[in-house]
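DM from R.C. (forwarded with permission)

"hey, sorry to bug you on a friday — could you get me a structure for this? deadline for the figure draft is monday and I only need the backbone to look sensible"
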Amino acid sequence: MTVLLFRPDLGKKAYRLKCRFVIEAFPTQDWLDKKKIETAERFVSDMKKQGWEYDPNKIVPSERGFKLRGPFQATPVMVLPKAPRIIPNHEALARVKAGDLMRDTGEDYAVTVPILSESAQWEYEISAVFIRSTILVETPDKHEELEVIRN
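My reply, with the result:
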């Protein structure tokens, strides 16, 4: 017989969440403040759709508001190349015997990012405290981990 044990409701808990936004390099302070406010409004509305609540009155006064960090180098969003087909050893040996050098195709997941002063775009990070019902994480017992390893 399966028995489910639930803990009592843990209520709501505050979590510090972060998001990043990209703007042109070397912005003026006014432009940066404007973008920070726009991004913060979008951040709050997006998180509200996911069930998070932003209410600066429910947290410690010293942690109210949005914290801005940056600038950082803008990380390019890229489409990862398809995983190469894994060639079995017997097929690779046959190809090498036939004269195929089987060289690297040159595809790589790494992207060279220029230093901050040479970047055309900068990335800034906004963090704020959002409130949500406590997130519970289930961790497997030791015997459950061993069952997964055996299979």
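R.C.: lifesaver. Helices lie at 29-49, 89-97, 142-150.
me: no worries. The longest strand covers residues 12-24.
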